[in-house]
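Field reference: sequence -> structure
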Amino acid sequence: SSGINAEYGDIDHPSHQPIINLSFHSITFPMSAVKLSIILCLLGRASSFAVNRSTIEPDHNWKFQYPVKASTAYVESTTEIPIDLNQFTVSFWVSEVPGYSSYIAYFTTPSREMQLYWYNYRGYNRLYLLVNGASTYCTSCINTSSGLKHVVVTWSGTAEANGVGSIWVNGVKVHTFSSLSRSTVIKKGLRVKLGQMHDSSATYSFKGEIMYFNLYPTYVTSVEEVAKLGKAAMSDPEAVVPWGAFIGGAHGDVVLYPEFELYTESFTTIVCHNNNMTVTIERKAFPHLIPSRASLKDPSCKVTWDDKLVNVTTNLDSCGTLVSYNSSVATYSNYLVPDILNPPTDPADTEGTDHAVINRGAIALDESRLFITCKYDLVPHRSIAAYAVASSRYNVEGKGARDFSFELKLYHDVSYKEVYLDKEYPLHADSKERIYAEALLSSGGEDRIEIRIEKCVMTPDADPNYSSQHNLLIEGCSVDDTVQYHDSTSGLSQRFSFEAFRFNERPTAVVYMHCYIDVCSADVEDSKCKQGWKLCDTEGEAETN
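Structure field:
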């Protein structure tokens, strides 16, 4: 249903699977890794000057971007490996620019004590690992054109796993090896270089993005251990060379940027339910958030918290939640203000220095809110010829998901006592003959919900997006002069009628009817579902039966 935007009080409930979207943005100053704002679509911090908390806080949600291949472009750890390692695990995220080279260097130490690089050898894509000069490789085990990926390399030079190790990409073990540099150690005092070979060869230099590189003094073997490493690590205390050790080590054209998408995904969780969305935030990752002073868009909607987590839930029809639609997706959105004593400002109200280069004004709303979004795919209902639509079912994924059955039924007359049977479709209707329709949602009585028909469109084809189409209802109200509204017996149904017609383009074609509905909480007195047809300017068209 295109172009429909509604304030809270409505819940669209078409056939859907939830799509989760949380994004973080913040205002940052690089080098010392200080940060002025919070993010989930915490889109930053609520204010430049917050009470009872520091306005400059350490953070390591950064990424390094290598814009060009160059021997001088690399990042080196600012600290050395502090101990001899008889085993190690490297975890990092990487996104290469595809097709720019036959060689890609990921990381190395000065004399190839540890080194990982990719080489397109005579058409064979090989990933090489070196440990103390000895090498192993796998073929076609990493796709350098697949975008952001998580890579784990693990090796042991001691005990029963002496010389054994493996390489993992996106949680899948792509290579195993044995007898590699048995009974050796990686000497302490070495620095790790990212995006370059040991000899600073421009041929092998890197182009793309590297982030969250951590070196651990452990050997891992399980999927669970690798998955845990995939979580974006700011400054992991278990790492001997943590990601934070690289922040000040950029050389050449390498640029340091804030990284929000992966960081947000790692430390927040959102669940899209039937009637609400719930967000859980790990407090350690967002020290800027003050739970006692945080709220959703509606200041009365507070968060709950403990020592580790902050939780917030909003119904899809309350707390200022907005819903918008396009032709394929229903989007519900709200945002968290991390400190209501220092709320973000509307851009029009921002005061302070505002020049082309700098701005010392208050942080604006778009820069400083925790933006929460749940998206649901809109799936048109199956159509049956001649003003009939068959029932269809859809599941809502997530905790507490339930099945709903949405049906469109046609009746013989305005009494709505005798329904047409499936075998009677397609109907044979004369031009201007009145068609009586009902939209009905079945939920087993478990949900306190009501419905409202949001849109009904007619086409001479089973495709609801067919080029020739005629709208009966838009935003819950008629746009066809022949539509009449009729009372229903339940908040779970809505009735209307209209005069049959034919399409000039295809006058003998069967006419298909496609409808979409909103679902609202029955407990919201002023919801559009509760008001139903009363919201429409009927101009005498309404008919009560």
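Note: The CA atoms of residues 443 and 489 lie 16 Å apart.
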